[in-house]
Specification:
mainly alpha, two-stranded antiparallel ribbon, 49% helix, Four Helix Bundle (Hemerythrin (Met), subunit A)
């Protein structure tokens, strides 16, 4: 999140300096999001605590002064709050729905802190579905500005209010949207995105319509704003679904160039994000 320190261009040099100092302090102390969950930049003291802890970070985790974490302090008196898992996962979902970018958030750390100093005294680590470095993920880093924090809080509050046990199709779509970020190649990401689309639209009763038609027409009706845009969405998702079928059935397929699949996956993700946001808002 490299541009969190960016200020308005109309500020004077003095105002800009004061704003940067204020924001630097906020980044270290943490920005409250919801239910005691904060977003905070790792400090030098944190790195020392990790280094000296008898519960070190897993070998595939890298922490530096440029790393941002989501945290919620608990004490021995508090005990373990099992809802914390879902709050953290919902926070990552909110960030991914807010905007495009590569956010890693499948790992959850439980840290007990002392009452005298915020120091790690024990750590429990869990990770759902494993962890992979997506070298081929083309969506770039996740840049979150201070101006976007209110929108993130609103999105997180909306997600927290949803009873996913009742809205099973929406729940599955969100899970597959999240899972795509943990996949190691574009084909698997496309499959996850399309399963999410199927969860959202295939269940609708449209006589004689194929899955491809239900997805493409359903999404175009939901997020398309003009006739031209609706037509493009129908055409694009029909093509994307056909490509998904070829991948699933291990069929040989040809593409115009090596960048075609990344573009299809990227645009499919954008449309799915728009659809999910429409249904969550």
């Amino acid at each position: 999140m490299s541009n969190v320190l960016t200020g308005r261009i109309d500020l004077s040099s003095t105002e800009r300096t004061n704003l940067l100092v204020q924001r630097e302090k906020e980044l270290v102390e943490g920005i409250d999001l919801i239910d005691g969950v904060r977003m905070r930049r790792i400090s030098k003291e944190d790195l020392e605590d990790f280094k000296n802890s008898i519960f070190p970070l897993p070998s595939d985790k890298v922490a530096s002064l440029k790393t941002f974490v989501l945290e919620k302090y608990i004490t021995t008196k508090d005990g373990h709050d099992f809802q914390l898992d879902q709050i953290m996962q919902n926070t990552i979902l909110a960030m991914r729905l807010l905007k495009k970018g590569n956010v890693s958030g499948n790992c959850v750390f439980y840290i007990l802190v002392s009452e005298t100093r915020e120091k790690f005294v024990s750590v429990e680590w869990s990770c759902e579905g494993g962890y992979r470095t997506l070298e081929r993920w083309s969506f770039g880093k996740y840049d979150l500005s201070f101006d976007e924090i209110p929108a993130l809080k609103k999105k997180l509050s909306q997600i927290q209010s949803i009873d996913f046990a009742e809205k099973k199709r929406l729940s599955l779509a969100c899970k597959r949207f999240q899972r795509a970020y943990e996949e190691g190649d574009y084909e698997d990401q496309l499959i996850d995105f399309m399963i999410a689309f199927e969860a959202l639209f295939v269940g609708k009763d449209v006589r004689g319509a194929s899955k491809r038609e239900k997805i493409s027409i359903g999404c175009s009706d939901l997020v398309g704003e003009t006739g031209k845009e609706k037509g493009y969405i129908v055409s694009f998702l029909s093509k994307a679904y056909s490509l998904r079928n070829l991948v699933v059935h291990a069929a040989d397929y040809k593409v115009k160039d090596e960048y075609e699949i990344p573009r299809v996956v990227s645009e499919t993700e954008d449309l799915l994000r728009k659809a999910l946001n429409k249904l969550i808002d």
